[in-house]
Amino acid sequence: MKHGLILIALFIAATALTSGEHSSAYMAFITTHSPNTTTTHSPNTTTTHSPNTTTTHSPNTTTTHSPNTTTHNPNSTTHNPNSTTTAPSTTTTSIPVPTPSTNMTTGNYNFSDAKGTLCIMVVAAIGIHVNTSEVNGTFIVQPSKTNVSGDCSEEVASLIITFNEGEISLQFQKNKTTKKVYVKYVQYELTYAFKRGVLRNYTGTNRSLELFSVDLGYSYSCQAETVYMGGGVSLDLTQYRFQAFDIKNKNFGPPELCKADQPDYRVPIAVGIILIILIIIVVIAYLISRKRRTDGYQSL
Fold it and tell me: pLDDT digit string (tens) for 227-238?
């Protein structure tokens, strides 16, 4: 009897505990989902709700929800746009100006054929003089700023002197019949500003008949000479010497002087003739005076 009462008491207690557990679960569900229910957070407990994130509540964790309030931390993305700044291109055009004045400078302009044989030798100070209604000036070729090119054959030899502002060309011709060598033509081209900001182009050719003609194997020499190119332009040559063909031992042949450098014997001849005439006049006058004196004496 005593054991039966004990078993009944244990059954009633187990039933009570089971009923209380179900009640607690039910109350927790009601508390969590009821919109007007206030829940107190335990101290030191923080719950952050990120968008699209599911929060799992562990047992014995208390969460407080503001009624009908949802706070989202939006994913904010800041883009740094690729900004490209292009500086405008600037083209600076220099104003053409005359080069500083300088003196005539003698340069050596030689050219050899494909076999290495020297066929043209030129020593000269070169200036291009322009005298027009707008310009009056001289461009002086600087030998240190020139390049030489050309061509040599059996009867024709060409020399081209090139510089930044233009070029000068000479063509030498050999005549086997007369055994003469001469310059067939001289040609120039110049782009230069004789005045500040005024850039002009000048060109010209001189095809004079047998210019600078000399015997084959001789050189042409002159202290100063001017070659007129037309259009108010002239080629000024100073202290120059030319030779093409038959150059021996890389030296100039005997010089043939230009007319300006050739000695002029006309004045001495004229002076001599005048002196002879004066002498003759004096002699005649002397003889006449002597005869008169002789006729003045009478014989005794």
Answer: 999 999 999 999
